[in-house]
Amino acid sequence: MSNTKYADAVGAVRAMENSLLTKNDIDQLINSRSKAEITSIISSRSGSSGNDTLSDVWNMLREYAPECKELEILLYKNDFHNLKAVLKAIISNRDPKQYYIEPSNVELSTLVDAINSKEYTELPDYLQNTAAEAYELITQTLDGQLSDSLIDTSALKAIQKSADDLGNSFMQNYAELLIVCADIKTAYRCCLLGKSAQFMENALCGSREIDKEQLIKAALSGTDSLFSFLEGTSYSNAAALLKESAAKYEKWCDDAVMELAESTRMQAFGSEPLAAYFIAKEAEIKNLRILTVCKEFGADKETVMERMRKLYV
């Protein structure tokens, strides 16, 4: 497939990038004193009402590139989250709609019907086996933690496999980054909770950059051993932040994804700029949510600034 196929879409995205919030906009929002002032600042941005949702962004991108498989990978994490939501809702006899995340590649009704009927072929290939395994696991053991662990790991593996199958280097780097960030965090949590080697073997996805067995071995020996091991990897800075606080580590992970998105800024063709724009809007919406919560709880400016994610522009 020629990359020029998305030339019109990239052109449209480049124009829309002008409406993304800038560092100056964020500074003004942090210094704002009322909701009315926040709304005014956001509305002053061309084309930005402050009410944009990721679903709006997704629908727009799909209009320009309806057959782009690379974009679909960005929603895998939502698809697998929604699988967890449906399974838990069925077990607890609740409505899964309240836990359903949009946008997603799989409609809620499709997911519910497939689980209830056990007709998993109704689901995309990357979701079928996990749905069947997770259903059996949670119905037989009622262990939500084990089911969640299975689904989370499967999500990362699905992202990696699809990126590799498509041969798209941007999505492959995106998958690798997600996996490493998740594995480090999971290993740390397992270390704190004293989880077994077998539990970690199932909970960790395994990446190309950090040896899975070495990571497990280090985590089994305690936090000092874990951080000592991570200091010898290219993720030593991230590990140092995790040692300080989980919040700082999560911010580093989000910022690393944004840095990857920034690498597409000079591309005129291909799906990469489209994916980068989605990532940029995702970060922008997260920043607005963080800022709103911080304002509601009276956090000082320094705290708000520390929690702001890296921007695309």
Count of DSSP E strands?
Answer: 0
Main structural class: mainly alpha
Measured between the Cα atoms of the first and last residue, the distance is 29 Å
The CATH architecture of the largest domain:
Orthogonal Bundle
Low-confidence segments, given as residue ranges, are: none
Report mean pLDDT, rounded to a whole number: 92
| Portion in helices | 55-70%
- Global shape: globular
Number of helices: 17
Q: What is the makeup of the main sheet?
A: none
Total discrete domains: 3
Q: What is the beta-strand fraction?
A: under 5%
User: What is the fold named in CATH at topology level of the largest domain?
Assistant: Topoisomerase I, Chain A, domain 4
Quick synopsis:
With 313 residues, the chain is mostly helical. It contains 17 helices and no strands. 70% of the residues lie in helices and 0% in strands.
Mind explaining what this structure looks like?
By secondary structure, this protein is mainly α. It folds into three domains: 7-66 and 271-313, Topoisomerase I, Chain A, domain 4; 69-167, Up-down Bundle (V-type ATP synthase subunit C fold), CATH 1.20.1690; 169-251. It has 17 helices and no strands. Helix 6 packs parallel to helix 8 and helix 8 (125-141) packs antiparallel against helix 9. The longest helix has 25 residues, at 169-193. The chain starts with 6 loop residues before the first helix and ends in a 6-residue tail after the last helix. 35% of the residues are buried. The model has no long low-confidence stretch (mean pLDDT 92).
